[in-house]
């Protein structure tokens, strides 16, 4: 049931730059992440959204045009802790960076708390 959200930055709301992943890139990520997570077909969802650069900042740096951060949010039924999660997060980062042509140091992965008992599909809570 992993749900992965890829958030990229653009220069304007109607930007035609490469800020948004293409459908092909999203499918590539869905397939690769599904394999990483051990999902059945249709078990891993990947969605994208765009944030205007004007509404993003990092402390104590000047935000240059070569900085193209990507925020990756992962929701899973169970989030493992420790070394396994660290390896998985590094792999998610590498897959996103490679697929979107970004530098790994600009891809940030955020795991939400375990979704079991908190997320419902078709009105049915994930158990």
Describe this structure in words.
With 127 residues, the protein is of the alpha/beta class. It has one domain: Macrophage Migration Inhibitory Factor. 26% of the residues lie in helices and 24% in strands. The chain contains 2 helices and 6 strands, in the order βαββαβββ. The protein has a 4-stranded mixed beta sheet, covered by helices on one side. The protein is globular.
Q: Could you outline the blueprint of secondary structure elements for this entry?
A:
Blueprint: E1 3-10, H1 23-37, E2 45-52, E3 70-75, H2 83-100, E4 107-111, E5 120-121, E6 124-125
Parallel strand pairs: 1-2, 3-4
Antiparallel strand pairs: 1-3, 5-6
The major β-sheet equals: 4 strands, mixed
Mean pLDDT: 91
End-to-end separation in angstroms reads 11 Å
- Which CATH class applies here? Alpha Beta
Describe the structure concisely.
This protein is of the alpha/beta class. It has helices at residues 23-37, 83-100, and strands at residues 3-10, 45-52, 70-75, 107-111, 120-121, 124-125.
What are the salient characteristics of this protein?
127 residues, alpha/beta, Macrophage Migration Inhibitory Factor, 4-stranded mixed β-sheet, two-stranded antiparallel sheet, 2 helices, 24% strand
């Amino acid at each position: 049931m992993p749900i992965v959200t890829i958030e990229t930055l653009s220069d304007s709301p109607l930007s035609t730059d490469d800020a948004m992943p293409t459908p092909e890139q999203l499918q590539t990520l869905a397939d690769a992440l599904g394999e990483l997570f051990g999902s059945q077909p249709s078990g891993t969802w990947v969605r994208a959204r765009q944030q205007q650069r004007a509404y993003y900042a990092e402390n104590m740096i000047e935000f240059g045009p070569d900085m193209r951060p990507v925020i990756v949010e992962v929701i899973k039924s169970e989030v493992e802790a420790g070394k396994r999660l660290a390896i998985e997060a590094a792999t998610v980062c590498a897959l996103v960076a490679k697929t979107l042509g970004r530098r790994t140091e600009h891809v940030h992965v955020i795991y939400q708390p375990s979704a079991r008992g908190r997320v419902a599909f078709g009105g049915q809570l994930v158990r």
